[in-house]
TrEMBL record:
Ranges of residues in domain Chromosomal replication initiator protein DnaA ATPAse: 63-222
Residue ranges the record marks as coiled coil: none
Record's protein name: DnaA/Hda family protein
Record GO biological process: DNA replication
Gene3D superfamilies: P-loop containing nucleotide triphosphate hydrolases (3.40.50.300)
Organism: Brumicola blandensis
Pfam family, one: Bac_DnaA
InterPro entries in alphabetical order: DnaA_dom (IPR013317), P-loop_NTPase (IPR027417)
Compositional bias segments (type: Polar residues): 258-272
Membrane-spanning segments: none
Ranges for region Disordered: 247-272
Amino acid sequence: MKSLNDRINELARSLGKDPEKEAMFDYQQRREEFDRLANQDIQKLQIETRQQRVQHIHGKSELNPKWTFHNLVEDAPDVVEAINIAKSFIAAHADPSWRNSSAHMMIFYGDYGRGKSHIAGAIAHQLIEQYETTVLYRQLQTLLEMRFSSYDYQSSDNAPEKFREINRQLQEVDLLILDEVCVNQSMLKKNTQSWLGNLLRQRLVNNKNCIMITNHNLKELESALGPYCFESIKEYDTYKVRFQGPSRRKQVVPDQAEPSSSTSQYQPNQIR
């Protein structure tokens, strides 16, 4: 009487298959190969998905793409110190307890062209790449102009809706960069002080970080922001970085006066 194995072999031959070759098929090895390929596909998909998320965050941040550490020139002690502080701030994000314990505020202050915005942008770019940190960069004056425009309810450009949306983003992003704070202003208006103070307090409650960039010194900044707003800053874990090196912007006006042209007879507002 034929065994079950013999019957299976006969069936295999009738189907045109070699039982000996079929017996050599290693199902475990093939399963491991399938698993390996499947894991590769999953990892590739995860990488592509993460890249898409990072690109989306970059796109919404409104950061200058040139503001990176690679483009920084360490040509003065204040820049070197600022970069060291910036990289320590970035490295601290690896600790979840640090991120969740409190809100952190970096104040970059100093004259124009010292690299304040560049280093703030470099911090933001790296945090996006490493931790997918959501970022929003805005000049304070631009926000205030949007805020004032939102009071015109008869406007046809949807200004109120636009400002409500940006105000939501201001509260929710992980890192808010406010540039040109109190530029050309010795003191913000009272209602502006209240609005900005409330925004900073809301972010403080939610452990959201800020970078504030200003041309004022700290004493002038306190006066310009007003007591209510500045008190909210004191509640943050604050890092103060002073920029006092040379300007990195291109010179437009030469150091020495140029000779006037003797051939030009033009005078402004002439009546002929």
